[in-house]
Amino acid sequence: MAKSLSARIAERIARKKPAGNVRNRAAFLALRGEVKQAIDDGWPVKTIWETLHDEEKVAFSYQAFRGYVNRLILSPPANGETAPAPVVADQSGQAAPRSAPQSARTPAEWKPEKLAATGFTFNRTPKKEDLL
User: Fold this and answer.
1) Which has more confidence, 17 or 99?
2) Which residues pair with 97 in a beta bridge?
3) What value, to the nearest 5°, has the Cα angle with vertex 40 and ends 2 and 31?
4) Are 59 and 20 in contact, with CB atoms under 8 Å apart?
5) CB pairs under 8 A, 24+ apart, for 113-118?
6) Region Disordered: start and end of each range (predicted)?
7) Which residues 6+ apart lie within 8 Å of 128 measured at CB?
8) Residue 47 to residue 84: CA distance in whole angstroms
9) Which of 54, 72, 61 is nearest to 21 (CA)?
10) What Rg, from alpha-carbon coordinates, does the chain have?
11) What average pLDDT does the structure give for the chain?
């Protein structure tokens, strides 16, 4: 059976030796199905990258790999379906889902006690008792 168009493009890119980012993207796209399956199986993105890097299937950095995962696998589809949160590295270097920013949350999730201003507030008109 004939190879898929994606596989043929990946082979062509590998033969031509184009710029690094094009070659890296082609390598990732060739492995996208396997990477998505591993993520769905619950494997951390860092472990997936380490395995592919050790097998010499990817030659680019973990940060670049994480960017491809976020953009090409975890980004929301155009048809409006929801997708998992993008991946960010935590303190230990392991990948963890990123929480949605407050502006992306629904109003029901906003907590008024967290939205209230705390700490110092600047008042540009001075009080007479505060002046020397």
Assistant:
1) 17
2) 87
3) 35
4) no
5) none
6) 79-132
7) none
8) 18
9) 61
10) 23
11) 75
